[in-house]
Write a structure and sequence with these properties.
The structure is a homodimer.
Chain A: H1 6-22, H2 26-30, E1 33-42, E2 49-53, H3 55-69, E3 72-83, E4 86-94, E5 98-107, E6 110-121, H4 147-157, E7 166-169, H5 173-184, E8 189-192, H6 200-203, H7 215-218, H8 235-248, E9 253-254, E10 257-265, E11 270-277, E12 280-284, E13 288-291, E14 298-299, E15 313-316, E16 330-334, H9 338-349, E17 353-358, E18 363-366, H10 367-375, H11 381-385, H12 390-398, H13 402-419, H14 421-429, H15 442-450, E19 454-457, H16 460-465, E20 470-473, E21 477-480, E22 484-487, E23 492-494, E24 497-500, E25 504-505, H17 508-514, H18 517-523, E26 556-558, H19 563-581
Parallel strand pairs in A: 1-6, 7-8, 7-13, 8-9, 13-26, 15-24, 16-17, 16-24, 17-20, 18-19
Antiparallel strand pairs in A: 1-2, 3-4, 4-5, 5-6, 10-11, 11-12, 14-25, 21-22, 22-23
Chain lengths: ~600, ~600
């Protein structure tokens, strides 16, 4: 073993794996995996988003899927490498119906991690590069339509004379990028958005909001941001980009359209979606329904005794208009995570007396350190210089099994503790309750497990540390009065404004409202890994609940996540939808069971 | 010589050239050039766009510019190659004020062609990559403005409380891409456009219009078209892209704004530009004034006896609304180049009886063959696979001296004659007068020399060949009557519609209208090379007259060209403007004299 090169080892493994596939030998394939193994498949084998953990799971999946998948033509891509006893290799492959790309990590010639992803469906490739459409039709034909005429005709017909195959409820970045992918795949799609224009969901946010993830992480599919795009895009600039992206991607985008109700007709195998478009009711009958209303979409507002007596303003952070009208006022912000910090800082900058009420601990990740330590290897100028663009970064990220991801993350946050010891020390001195996740694995695991519980610090922590933003920690608001609030420790705080920076609920709450509680229950809790950590109860799921894959409600899907996830996973969701549109065989392996309702 | 590698030869030449620069030895530098040599400089040495042809010209330029330019640090980029006795090498270099990139062709160790181009000004680099702005300002400051507030404030002030440094008259693709470059360089600029929105100049054209150049040739700076963009973009799709681009590039774009008058105040060293913005008169006082009204901008309409008696419709091709209202009518199209063919084909497709009047010969370049033979090496999927993107393609194109460019082109069109012999034969049989340029050098030389005289065939030629589009060749319209026209051969043609597809005049006609005839004369004829071929009288200029470089009217510039030229040469024009904005020393070497007035 030690006298072979990484190339030879990887090639041999691929050859053996390919041979096992071709000869339909499950045992031969399983024998190539280590006892401690993870095979994450994004659609290509399982028509699902699923991680097979351990030999039994691998065997079970292959027994069910190997023959029909018909995987073959495994080819190395680039040069395999080795470090710390792990050989890493990239490869392409084919299946009966599709083409794919994957990554392999070998330990002692056995697969430790395997990632297989579907990149395109045979016969239904996007028309790009040499296969792009001509545009001008050469030759001449009487009565032909121009591009504009065709586009206008499509926009007039779709949803009326002709039904879309997919309706996406939610026209934020998630709905938009999924629609762009479906457009390229030729799947008739309508995006439903309550705001008038694409980008408005960003424009409507408080004025100082900027993205917290750096630009290299945030590109949309097909049109990366220009190379002078700010590291942290201001909300309105992003709003403009989304508006223009929606237009040039030729997305059928219904702004000023409210989704009222959706119901599934089992007999017809289609949905009826009632929307109100610019005041008029329209009935849409798509086959597939996608909800893209946001991980941080369904506001959570605690019911506090006396809230109705409050004489000042009170609103959830998602409705916070910004600090402009509150100069000289007293504001209480309930919550201590991202929105709370952003809002408190903006209020302070505008001369508002602001107190943050911290109920439970928060993970603080200073932005610069986060960029450098957590993302820099994959999403940065440095990464690009090392040949890792966001396409590659996405695949590297996807290749790390969720089960062991925390082990990759813990060292990052150990380093962050050292680097930021001063800030953390001063925060604790000010009474702030800090954490690094239940197991020290930091921000991204908290995000995956619970979608909350952190602040990417772009300046507010300094204000908390130095007392500019007043802090009451380890308490809650017990009772609200006309001009003040009483905390659980008995303190009374005068208040003109209460902001509930109290987070968001599981996305299937939208389903309860828009479809039915039964369907919401059938789908179950959305997001989280089942890690048995705070706000992420077990059992272990292995993947994010209900995201980008078949749910237990027929023909209902959920899309979303941060810009990186929207970008990458829209690829796999769009392929699953396209396959159904083309009536290909898509037997789902390992449909996840529901363990939690909300 | 024969036992050295291309790398060694190129390296040696660069070392010697660099040493001559550093030691200020003009003779040593000149000695490195062949007798038959061409040194094309884009700004870096000459603060001009200028080709030095022959040793005397090289010596004269170096005597004047070598010391002050202070060129140094010549480094090879990539691997030099050799073919047919010519060594080709790419390199980067610096000057006192700037950085540059260049290309070298050696024959027997002497420079046959040298290209030096300025890529950026030291200290004024675009904020891209690792130097991009942050966006979110870390830390907190009271009273800060959001991105949107800053943008809105800038839009409100510029042109009113604050004057732009540059005003660009003309908001088509030329004005837009120049403005994008200037924005990135931080030069306050306003674009004046008579149509309401960016992209309208394309939307207003006849409905079937598509670009005639293929997509890989057409990218705008900073944001290439997505990889599924049609090969030939339909006009409305391009219009939408330009509108989007203008917005995301944060260009200060004044639509619905008409430029009325401009005059130069020598004492103040600034322009006064009177515009009518949405009905209100505004006075702008930029230092620099750029005209970007289009190579095909100023319509040429011949005065024909009896035109005022015509009862039908008559208009220049630029005003042609498309074929929709003329079904069943009789149409006469005067002209036989691009617009004429496009319009005739669209009319035929809509059931119009159409006759093309060909006054002089036309070069027909079938699109597929043109793409493959003329552009394919530099602008195609194939080129990309060979590592040549449009950035590289632009530089390769720029490295071929205009003086000898026809020698590169003639073989291309010899091949085209063979490939398209059938079509050409049938066209001639139908009476069509064909040419391949005066010297057989085909389309691009005709474009550079006279901006006209060709048709990139996307189907109309077939209709001419088979008689669907009727043809009268070698004639002109002598006289117009209420319902017919008489040709110079005596034929009378009934007509309901006359389209003057009679081309465009020199861009300085705009100057005569908007500034003064004196200034128009001072600037002189725009475009053309002085090749002493049809419509391009000598003497030899060596570069396109008045394009992208200092004119003989102080602080007046002209921008434009096709999408490739707009893209590439906006780089050099923007750098010249930025240098003046920063009050750097920009002594212009070899200001071109005026030999023709229009």
């Amino acid at each position: 073993m030690t006298d072979t090169t990484p190339l030879q080892r990887a090639q041999r493994w691929l050859d053996q794996f390919g041979a096992a596939q071709t000869s339909d030998k499950t045992d031969a394939a399983v024998a190539l995996f280590a006892a401690d193994c993870y095979w994450r498949d994004l659609v290509s084998f399982t028509w699902n988003i699923r991680t097979q953990e351990g030999l039994d799971a691998v065997r079970d999946m292959l027994s069910s899927r190997m023959t029909e998948t018909g995987a073959s033509n495994f080819q190395l891509e680039g040069e395999p490498t080795e470090a710390d006893g792990v050989t890493e290799a990239w490869f392409t492959f084919e299946t009966r119906l599709a083409r794919g790309r994957g990554q392999l990590r070998l330990k002692d010639d056995k697969a430790w991690t395997l990632l297989t992803t579907m990149t395109e469906l045979k016969g239904f490739e996007e028309k790009t590069g040499s296969h792009r459409i001509k545009g001008a039709e050469h030759g001449a034909q009487q009565g032909r339509q121009s591009w504009l005429e065709r586009r206008e005709a499509e926009e007039a017909r779709l949803g009326y004379e002709a039904q879309p195959y997919v309706v996406i409820i939610g026209g934020g970045q998630g709905g938009i990028v999924l629609a762009a992918r479906l457009k390229r795949l030729g799947v008739p799609t309508i995006v439903i958005e309550k705001n008038p224009k694409a980008g408005d969901s960003w424009r409507n946010r408080y004025k100082t909001l900027c993205l917290h993830d750096p630009v290299w992480y945030d590109h949309l599919p097909y049109m990366p941001f220009p190379d002078d795009w700010p590291v942290f895009a201001p909300k309105d600039k992003l709003g403009d980009w989304l508006e223009m992206y929606t237009k040039v991607m030729e997305i059928n985008y219904w702004g000023s359209t409210l989704a009222k109700k959706a119901s599934f007709d089992e007999a017809k195998g289609e949905w009826t979606v009632v929307v109100e478009r610019e005041g008029k009711e329209v009935l849409l009958r798509p086959k597939q329904l996608v909800f893209a209303l946001g991980v941080s979409g369904y506001p959570n507002v605690p019911k506090i005794e006396g809230a109705e007596t409050f004489l000042g303003e009170q609103h959830h952070s998602s409705k916070h208009p910004g600090p402009e009208h509150y100069a000289g006022k007293k504001c209480v912000v309930l919550g201590s995570n991202n929105s709370a910090h952003d809002i408190c800082a903006a209020l302070w900058e505008n001369g508002v007396d602001v107190t943050m009420i911290q109920r439970s601990s928060t993970h603080i990740a200073p932005s610069e350190s986060l960029m450098e330590l957590a993302l820099g290897g994959l999403y940065s100028e440095e990464a690009i210089k090392n040949g890792i663009d966001h396409h590659k970064g996405d695949l590297v990220f996807a290749s790390v099994p969720y089960k062991i991801m925390h082990t990759f993350q813990i060292p990052v946050y150990d380093e962050m503790k050292k680097r930021e010891a001063d800030l953390y020390g001063r925060l604790e001195k000010a009474g702030f309750m800090l954490d690094f996740g239940d197991d020290g694995s930091g921000l991204f695991m908290k995000y995956l497990r619970r979608g909350s519980g952190y602040y990417i610090d772009v300046g507010a922590s300094e204000l908390v540390a130095d007392g500019s933003i007043k802090l009451k920690s380890g308490v809650d608001i017990q009772c609200i009065h006309p001009k003040s609030v009483t905390l659980s420790d008995g303190t009374e705080l005068p208040a003109d404004l209460i902001v509930y920076a109290t987070g968001y609920g599981s996305m299937n709450r939208w389903l309860a409202d828009l479809v039915s509680p039964e369907v919401a229950d059938r789908v179950g809790k959305v997001w989280g890994l089942g890690s048995n950590t705070t706000k992420d109860p077990g059992p272990w799921e292995g993947e994010l609940r209900n995201m980008w894959k078949p749910t237990n409600q027929q023909q209902l899907w959920i899309h979303g996540g941060n810009l990186h996830q929207s970008r990458h996973y829209s690829q796999f969701l769009s392929l699953q939808l396209k396959a159904r549109y083309e009536e290909l065989d898509t037997p789902v392996y390992g449909q996840a069971a529901v363990h939690h309702l909300r």
